[in-house]
Amino acid sequence: MRTDDFDFALPERLIAQHPPERRGESRLLYAHDDVLEDCRFADLLRLVEPNDVLVLNDTRVIKARLFGGKDSGGKVEVLVERVLNEREVLAQVRASHAPKSGSHLLLAEALSVDVLGREGEFFRLRFAGDEPVLALLERYGRLPLPPYITHAADVEDEQRYQTVFAREAGAVAAPTAGLHFDKGMMQALRDKDVRIAYVTLHVGAGTFQPVRAEHIHEHTMHSEWYEIPQVTVDAIAQAHGAGGRVIAVGTTSLRAMESAAQNDELQAGSGETNIFITPGYRFRIVDVLLTNFHLPRSTLLMLVCAFGGMEQMLAAYRHAVEKEYRFFSYGDAMFIEIKKQ
Predict the structure, then answer these.
(1) How far is CA 57 from the centre of its chain?
(2) Any domain includes 239
(3) Cβ contact 164:183 at 8 Å
(4) Backbone phi and psi for residue 301, each to the nearest 5 degrees, phi listed first
């Protein structure tokens, strides 16, 4: 398939620059059986059923952006992609000239950092001292907002570009379908006997990259770390055993579960995934997908088309543009049911 098969026209005014005033006030496009229904996010409570299991990504966004300079005097911007251990990270480094292996950086006027070398598009950096990198980032770093959000991260973003259930630090981008949930919605779901389960997938900056290859099979997918706890495997088995559905909240939760499926059964554990889900993929675990609207020509849009049907999903996106839904991280959501055979 060609990458431009997944293109669509999006007016810039529909790219949400700020979250709604309160969580859960977004719109929700319900896609099922070739029908599109314009709903509110609060309608999720009537779309889920007792014994369904809602699977959320509990990753926490870290303050991964740092500014500083090279020992040669040039300015640098560092975006941590992944924390490797208590002192080392993989990071994107923007500078007029790429730093050399063995050179030093001074970040946030406080952090001494050694450039250990290059690993593909990333640099391996080591932070001096004994304090863990995550603690240093929390103190000196800035929240990394997506490239299509034009303002610098502020106090509102530090609260709202984070889910209410975030707990496992390591992502550089939020699992944005989860941003709609507040504590009241979580409790209302439990009161309806909907199971709540969690996976962890540390979202990388590669999630925002468009596919530049002419044909999608030529694209090299970025890798992300995930973990599936046994309690989540058990909750999914119980839901399916009781006739319920597995509802993935976000493409990240879906990718984690589908990556961990072996012989059509979900396995607990952790690992790396570079799974690239495109039309023709057979889904093994997930029955329903709740997701935001994604970038044109992106791997996430390809995943959505694989899940809901390419013709149906591109029609849904055209509908969303026509009805002026809000797009991307701070935007509205879709609830997609696989067409029943």
Answers:
(1) 9
(2) yes
(3) yes
(4) -65, -40
